[in-house]
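forwarding from the other thread:

> can someone predict this with adenosine-5'-triphosphate?

sure thing
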Amino acid sequence: MMSQATMSRYVIQVENLDVFYGEKQALDKIQMSIEENTVVALIGPSGCGKSTFLRALNRMNDMIPSVRINGAITMHDENIYDKSIDVEMLRKEVGMVFQAPNPFPKSIYDNVAYGPRVHGEKNRKVLDEIVERSLRQAALWDEVKDRLKDRATGLSGGQQQRLCIARTLAVEPEIILMDEPTSALDPISTAKIEELIQELKRKFTIIIVTHNMQQAARISDRTAFFLSGELVEEDQTDHLFSNPHDQRTEDYITGRFG
Ligand SMILES: Nc1ncnc2c1ncn2[C@@H]1O[C@H](COP(=O)(O)OP(=O)(O)OP(=O)(O)O)[C@@H](O)[C@H]1O
């Protein structure tokens, strides 16, 4: 056993990650270490590889037939690309929230209970507890507690996105990936999700793709700037925005291209 002091604070270590779609290289030798209980923002122009990087972290790219991956992503001292890895378990540990809210056409309750049920939970009392806890963690409980049997698709866009976050939390992940989770939402719903992210990082590690640099600056501890498949710079968010090391980062954050 390692002592507490020598144990890595990094929940994710990415080493020399290449991702190809057929002949096209989408990520080139990415190195990044991610500490627990932080929010990491991924920024960069369209097509630079942000979503590809995010999807590499829970092996969502595996579903695309032409994909080829080199390098390693280590979580808890295991390479998630090892043959022995149970991808279903990995996706339980590393949850994902998408750009457009995508609740199932089921009740609010059944959306949140979905994951635990898939993993074998049948006890109604336990499920009730999970649903309430997850909805509370997603700051949605008070708005929906009297209508848990209503269809999720009747909720507002912002509520649907918080429901999708609750659905992710229900299986108790360690890491939450978010791919532009507020880009389809109005400013008030966006502010609620941003506030929620600040709350969630006490318990989870959050990696978020955003096109919005103000959002990255508001909510993240660290920011990673990608360009043409390369990780140009990764730093504490306030440093990256106030004192970037690379000219390309400076050009991007000052709006010279994008
Ligand atoms: N399924 C796929 N098949 C082939 N090429 C793909 C696929 N997905 C992404 N790519 C290519 O890989 C590169 C990186 O795409 P990716 O979606 O990761 O970028 P991004 O930074 O997330 O872009 P955006 O901000 O527009 O979502 C792009 O050139 C894109 O065209």
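Residues 21, 24, 26, 44, 46-52, 64 surround adenosine-5'-triphosphate (CB under 6 Å). thats all i got for now
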